[in-house]
Amino acid sequence: MLARDAMGEAPPVKRNPYAEAADPERYRVADVPLFTCAEHADACVLCTTAGKNGRNGRTAAVGATLFWLTCPHLNALIARLEGHRCVQAVTEAMKKYPCLTTCHVRSHEVYAARARLLLTDAQWSFFTGHFLSTENAQQHKFGNAAVGHAEDMKCLHALVAQTLAAAENPVGSLLVNYLLFLYHLTCIAEDEVARSEEKRTDLRAVLDSRELLVHFMEAFLACMLNENEGDGHTRTVKGIRSATFTVSMPEPHVFEMTEVAYEWQLDSSFAALTPDVCARALRVLIFLEGKPPRRHKKHRIN
Questions:
Q1: pLDDT higher at 291 or 137
Q2: 23 lies in a domain?
Q3: What is the mean pLDDT of residues 187-200?
Q4: pLDDT average, residue stretch 115-139
Q5: Total domains present in the chain
Q6: Is the pLDDT of residue 238 over 50?
Q7: Is there a domain that residue 302 lies in?
C-alpha cells in the first residue's frame, strides 16, 4: 500500500528512465543470438531489457550490460571459477602485468563500438546518454561487466559473454582459452583414472582449483610479453597469433606430466570448434562432479 501525506494524497511515483526506455513485454527476452552451441542453440545473446528495475528486478529496464551468457554449461563452469575467487586472481594478474590492464581498458571502446553496431539509433542514444556519460563520472559504466572504473574487474560471466559476442577483451579470451585447456586436461585425467582409479580425487582437485588458472595466466602472459621467446618482439593480447606456451602443473604433481603445452586459440576460431565450447564445458563438469549437471527447467537472462 502506498504511503500518503497529511492531505491524504499519495506521493508522486518516481520516474525511472531505465524502465521507461524498455518494452515491458520483452523483459529478459533476447534480441539477437550472437553465439550458438549445439545443445542449447543460443549460448550468448544480446538483450537490451535485462536491467533490474526495483528492489527485486521484476520489470524490464535497459541496463549497461548487453551481452549475456545463456549456455548453462558455460555458466556453471565460470561460476566454479568465481567460487574459487578467480576474479581476485585476475585482478592480481592485472596489477602484476600492466599490459593486461591496458588491454582490458582498451576493450571498453571495443564494447561500445560493438554496441553501436547492434543497437538501434534510439537505443544507442539512450545507451550513450546514460552509460557513457562524460559529464557524470558516477554514471559512466565500462564494458559488458558495467564496472564503475575502467580498470575494475567484476563478473567473469560478462567478460566471457563479451568475447563470444565478438567484442574483443583480453580477460574473456583468456577465460575461454582456459576452458579449452581444462578440457584438454580432463581428457588426460580420464586416461589416467582409467589406469589408476584412486587418482580421481586428486586430479579433480587440481582441475577445480584457483592455482591452475593462475599458472595458466602466468604462462600466457609470459608468452605475450615475449619473456621466453628471444625474437625481439613484444606481443599484445590482440596481436598474439597461434602461440604455443607451456603451463606448469601445480604441486603436488598428481598428473603424470609436470608441464602441459597449450596452443592459444583466437576468438575467431571459437565458433568452429568441434566439439563446441558447450560440449567441452560439459565434459569438464562431468569429470569434476562425477555425473552430468542437473538440467534446469528455465534458463533465464540475469
A1: 291
A2: no
A3: 93
A4: 87
A5: 1
A6: yes
A7: no
Nine cell digits for residue 63: 541496463
Is there a contact between 91 and 82 (Cβ–Cβ < 8 Å)?
Answer: no
pLDDT for the residue 38: 93
Distance (Å) of CA 270 to CA 16, 38, 56, 94: 39, 13, 35, 24
Distance CA 109, CA 107 (A): 5
Contacts of 29 (CB under 8 A, 6+ apart): 47, 49
Residue 195 lies in a domain: yes
Residue in 207, 219, 203, 231 with CA at minimum distance from that of residue 280: 207
261 lies in a domain? yes
pLDDT (tens digit per residue) in 248-275: 999 989 999 999 999 999 999 999 999 9
- Residue 301 backbone dihedrals phi, psi, to 5 degrees: -85, 135
CA distance 298 to 8: 44
Is the pLDDT confidence value at 297 over 50? no
Q: Rounded distance, CA 157 to CA 178, Å?
A: 14
C-alpha distances (whole Å) from 82 to each of 78, 87, 175, 286 are 6, 6, 11, 18
Region 136-154: what's the mean pLDDT?
90
The range of the structural domain enclosing residue 73 comes to 32-228+237-289
